[in-house]
Amino acid sequence: MNKMLKIAVIGGGSSYTPELVEGLIRYHDTFPVGELCLVDIAEGEEKLRVIGELARRMVEKSGLPIKVVATLDRREAIRGADFVSTQIRVGGLDARSRDEKIPLAHGLIGQETTGAGGFAKALRTIPVILDICKEMEELAPEAFLINFTNPAGIVTEAVSKYSSIRSVGLCNLPIGTKMQIAELYGRAPEELFIEMAGINHLNWTTRVVLDGKDCTADFLGRLSDSGGFTMKNIPDLAWDADFIRSLGALPCAYHRYYYMKSEMLAELLESYKEAGATRADDVKAVEAELFELYRQPDLAHKPAQLEQRGGAYYSEAAVQLMKSIYNDAGDIQIVNVRNGGIIACLPDDAAIETNCVIKADGPHPIALASPLPPQIRGLLQVVKAYEELTVEAAVRGSREAALQALTIHPLVGDERAARTVLAEILEQNKAYLPAFAAE
Amino acid sequence: MNKMLKIAVIGGGSSYTPELVEGLIRYHDTFPVGELCLVDIAEGEEKLRVIGELARRMVEKSGLPIKVVATLDRREAIRGADFVSTQIRVGGLDARSRDEKIPLAHGLIGQETTGAGGFAKALRTIPVILDICKEMEELAPEAFLINFTNPAGIVTEAVSKYSSIRSVGLCNLPIGTKMQIAELYGRAPEELFIEMAGINHLNWTTRVVLDGKDCTADFLGRLSDSGGFTMKNIPDLAWDADFIRSLGALPCAYHRYYYMKSEMLAELLESYKEAGATRADDVKAVEAELFELYRQPDLAHKPAQLEQRGGAYYSEAAVQLMKSIYNDAGDIQIVNVRNGGIIACLPDDAAIETNCVIKADGPHPIALASPLPPQIRGLLQVVKAYEELTVEAAVRGSREAALQALTIHPLVGDERAARTVLAEILEQNKAYLPAFAAE
Amino acid sequence: MNKMLKIAVIGGGSSYTPELVEGLIRYHDTFPVGELCLVDIAEGEEKLRVIGELARRMVEKSGLPIKVVATLDRREAIRGADFVSTQIRVGGLDARSRDEKIPLAHGLIGQETTGAGGFAKALRTIPVILDICKEMEELAPEAFLINFTNPAGIVTEAVSKYSSIRSVGLCNLPIGTKMQIAELYGRAPEELFIEMAGINHLNWTTRVVLDGKDCTADFLGRLSDSGGFTMKNIPDLAWDADFIRSLGALPCAYHRYYYMKSEMLAELLESYKEAGATRADDVKAVEAELFELYRQPDLAHKPAQLEQRGGAYYSEAAVQLMKSIYNDAGDIQIVNVRNGGIIACLPDDAAIETNCVIKADGPHPIALASPLPPQIRGLLQVVKAYEELTVEAAVRGSREAALQALTIHPLVGDERAARTVLAEILEQNKAYLPAFAAE
Amino acid sequence: MNKMLKIAVIGGGSSYTPELVEGLIRYHDTFPVGELCLVDIAEGEEKLRVIGELARRMVEKSGLPIKVVATLDRREAIRGADFVSTQIRVGGLDARSRDEKIPLAHGLIGQETTGAGGFAKALRTIPVILDICKEMEELAPEAFLINFTNPAGIVTEAVSKYSSIRSVGLCNLPIGTKMQIAELYGRAPEELFIEMAGINHLNWTTRVVLDGKDCTADFLGRLSDSGGFTMKNIPDLAWDADFIRSLGALPCAYHRYYYMKSEMLAELLESYKEAGATRADDVKAVEAELFELYRQPDLAHKPAQLEQRGGAYYSEAAVQLMKSIYNDAGDIQIVNVRNGGIIACLPDDAAIETNCVIKADGPHPIALASPLPPQIRGLLQVVKAYEELTVEAAVRGSREAALQALTIHPLVGDERAARTVLAEILEQNKAYLPAFAAE
Hints:
4 copies of one chain form a homotetramer.
Chain A: E1 5-10, H1 17-26, E2 33-39, H2 45-62, E3 67-71, H3 74-78, E4 83-86, H4 92-105, H5 115-139, E5 144-147, H6 152-162, E6 166-169, H7 173-184, E7 192-199, E8 202-210, E9 213-214, H8 216-226, H9 241-247, H10 256-259, H11 261-275, H12 279-294, H13 305-308, H14 314-327, E10 331-338, E11 351-359, E12 362-365, H15 374-396, H16 399-408, H17 415-428, H18 434-438
Helix pairs in contact in A: 1-2, 1-14, 4-5, 4-12, 4-17, 5-6, 5-15, 6-15, 8-9, 15-16, 16-17
């Protein structure tokens, strides 16, 4: 176990990469990376160069024996890797901007990973990820795919159904939630056990255990006083106390798009109308600033501004996961994996996001304390059916599955809206959806 | 098997009763009713008198030995009955009118049986039906409850979970659909086999078999040309051909409230704004006219105008069901029963609406040809979760279950709207919801 | 629907065929067969000739326009058939004799369809039936396979898993049981509804309904007085009253090999020791006599002696099934079909034997009144696991699946016995098991 | 978390207790027991006194602040306990001797925990354990019940179904197996991950993972060379290599009673015939010797002879479990818990034995890598059905459930043998089975 590890980062030119580099440096003693191989596409060459140089400066400053490679040759990056992490954005921020604007133009929520926007992103992303998996099957069949690319749950389901590669889908939301709950109780995160159940970006905290006692009811009570937890990039509307008590669980930040649909939509529409911009446009500006910083030849650490970007705990989550696999740690982390009966009301081959024991052979999900109640089950099932159809649409280039996916999504839920929005999505993403052209 | 049967009709003063009487007369040779006992509440005494007299004139004209009793004593009506049919409207048309208007006032679909309107109706109806069941357990424990009262599926689930009485939920939509498909093919209804799967008012025709051949694809093709089937009381918007093909099944008329939510809502809002009235108000007018007719002392048959009322096939469905039970017929009818594993993606104790073999001990559901596809499964599961919560809310008087039920319903789907609408429903129906007062 | 039908009978030289011919003649008005094509293998040519001539004489006497063909060309027989029925015995009675003797030689029950004997028969039979299915897929893809060949349940499971042909497995035991129960109550069989659940030759009568009332408890009480029902070829040991009451169901005749293992084994061993013969040897003698009769040129009806052979109701069962399919009858018959969730404790793709509605597109199983209790569930599950492994062993020629199949069978249940018996079975059936040679 | 803990040991006079005391002393720094309360029944008073004194000497020698109490007052022992461990033997070794001899007298395997012997033990034990649980519900509702008493799986299922107490069933077989596998590979136990699935004493090792690689096939190959693992008290017959490979898993030592039924039975019968004694009689002799040793006033440690007794790792297993709960360790241990969907082919409320993460709120089972194959599934299901019926028999005093339990057990499997053996078991255990008297 003392060989030096090779990590390939697909989408290595991402502004998030310094997060990851910082983590790899911090944990090098227990996770001895020997080669960090950043790979990107030709359009991202300049960014990749900037990030590669920053990474090299960071490593140099650390004094650690990590070789940093920046390359456009994906096969070389993957060959012999121990971990392949993916943080790609097919179509770039321009595509994201379209994903957000198409639904808004029809009075629907336009969001990067949820609803019609997330659907478009899934269609573009899944074929690329499955291509990467095919290369891994050939060049690094034992490596783990650590997927950050959103929609992380749908991507995990596609990989698990259509590839033999061991993969884990990762999101910073669960670890963030756990940190916030720990803070609420004035405890260290490792002192509490939280049960999270659901799917990526639709995940309920169903149980909080402190010192062996179930304190979920107490937690839900405190929560409604505190205004609830949220994510950087989601408007922080407070949860109603009665609603939370009757739900019997803490929703995640993205639940606001469902449970507070009207207000969230109003807010998105207003800021779009006022500024003519969506979140993608803000991010573009932030990214430009970040790269300005990254280019400074004396910068050799992750700049504080990156946290504003919304990626808190990303590095933490990723390095912790790889480190626990490498060290056969057996600790519990909340990641996206194949269901296999853990959430009884979902298909066995669905991807779910829940507590897993991380062993050297990957994550093993653990049983829920009790079956999910109907108020959680119903919403979860309909969104999972949407995800199942979306995977089929992306893999087979099926307009039929695509139309049905959008129709049953609670944030669309109308076949006429679905047809209109689908037509625009397919049209505007034509360049990224060859499978649909073939039909 | 040659004793004369006693039928108790709870809500006997309903304008639909002549339908039923006509059926009982028509099928008397194979379903020998000896006593027809119409019972109603004090507020309905005058209507009951009118209907009772019309019924007596119809029977007299037929020359059959059926004794017609009209009474306010429900226990006496139930005592010794072979079949108890329920066609009640707790709170009358005024309550229905409120059910329709409360959601509309908040920009939500206001419909008698679907969405927030149907939810309010369920809260009022379930306690009364369970009271009837308790009396049946005492006075006619072997009788079948034939329930027409909407929302018929939710009511069936409540009875099946909270009573030992054998009950069947009945709707005229499935038989109507079958008639329309038969007509499309120029065949007699008994010549075709259709598989319907789902729950009451959310039921998909998933398979059409003619002469032993599966002709579902052909049927869905023809259908999109024909504009689709509908119900009297639901705006007849045509189904899109692509949508139907990708769905792989025929939706029912009520599916328009889901799949065409925006247009249906717009239509409801417009007619409400224009006329200040909803469907309940129209029905009031129709009812008044009908009772005017019924009062004519020389009327001794079901008047043609009743069919305008929307109850086509109601008599057919009800008498066919009771007749098949009485005669151990073994024919297939589509009714509401306990799931018991037939629809694998729903709980075993859920009420479903599907093909059943009707034997002397009641309906036995038959297996589906294949599991429901995700596009059907997802919507079905979330609406069933709503129904499960609604049963709990009604039986336990639980505000918590009620709030969650409304929140996950696809026609509400927003906890803030749910809270507002729930508060108004509870307030305006206070007189009918003692269980909620107790909380 | 008025074309004349073609029936192909594979194994047409069987002594049972006159049963079938008689049935086809009797029901010709509602099941208008135009061509009866008997096909057999070269080794059976003489028998086929005898049967063919007898069939022709029977038809001639009836005056019906049925063409009888006897041929060795299986493809011609299958081409264009509406129904293909299989009643083959791969390896003949000699193979059966070996199936019975190998287990007995090791102190295990040796029986034609159950335990190690039935296992050997399954290994020989499944490949032949799957070949027939392949020819049907080419030459008569819309035809139904009506399979009588034992072990009928295992064969049905193999066909359902490995062929696209619609098939039904058929046994005379369920219809016989129903007749006996009807007789016990002095009623016509169609007047009672019995629920049978399980798999072929391991089937429990779990419910008896008369006039719409569940009279199972009464039935089980009467039963223990009556000594129980049985089959011609199974020693008629009486069921213990306490045992039956605690079981809560009527076992089938073959259950004696399980529940009365010791006595049944003792009896088989004794008659083997005494006479040096098993049931197969008796049957050989009966067959010889029957064919002597069949050869008489003036015989033009099914001789009474055939019923001694054990095939009572075979014709009845087969013709009833084909007739109901042809006529879209919708009546209930107990046949072997794919589970599809009806018996919740078995895999969905397992073959089960239970009540089905017979429609033009085949049998549709109907829901059980309640889940099977543990005393039934446990035995059923272990025998079904044996069947699943046996199908795998036969299809893939897998010694590993074969060894495990025998090991968990309750009538073997010891891996050392399983290994010994398996080695002998494979050796003695080498000629019929090419798939195993390949391994 | 720094209060001193109270442990109550029901059956504290057991010869195993010094094992436990040794463990409590060894791990005192991370599992700070302040009071060890040994309790026993009046018949065991002398043994309790001997053990109590030995325990006190052991503690004294250790210099640790553990108060040792020996008492006949069970309520006082339980009051305020943090952990209650049960290691009782209802009826003593005399009852065990009868459990072994009754089946042998009828040609059936007579074993302490398996088959008819284990069944008798379950009938006697379950009511006593449920009484203890009732006292815990009153006097120590937050305490964990750590149950060692056999049959540990059946007892766990009874507690989980009929009590609100958190309980874990514990056996030394899994930890022993893990130790042996580790030794085979020359590794420390914590370096390997083994998946065990099944129920107590019928548990398969389905997966061995070393350094993140699945090496199950390699392991099964090595195993058949090594002769297999076993337990002190089970004859060590070697597993056949072909059998193990086709099974695809390592059986546990108790599987020999199933897979090698004939030889095991022959061996038991022979030693019974030769010596007139069974294992219980041997144990009596060993116990007498042990207590002779324990009485020596200068003995202040666990004597080496105790390991001959068969209890290797018992202390290890028990203290590790309590320690991990107390410390919220999150390590993986193989214990008996409620299934909750982990083994999909068993009921949710069945007790299973499998890998669990041990947290402060108890064990959380983790998902299996894949569903159990049919060769494991079938045997597991039938034995679990036996266990389910046995729990019902014991709790309700039901002769009917008892008869069916024995009938379907693979080591009985014959209703006539079951009836005979059941009658003797009920007769000879009358004093311990009041529930059956009531019937």
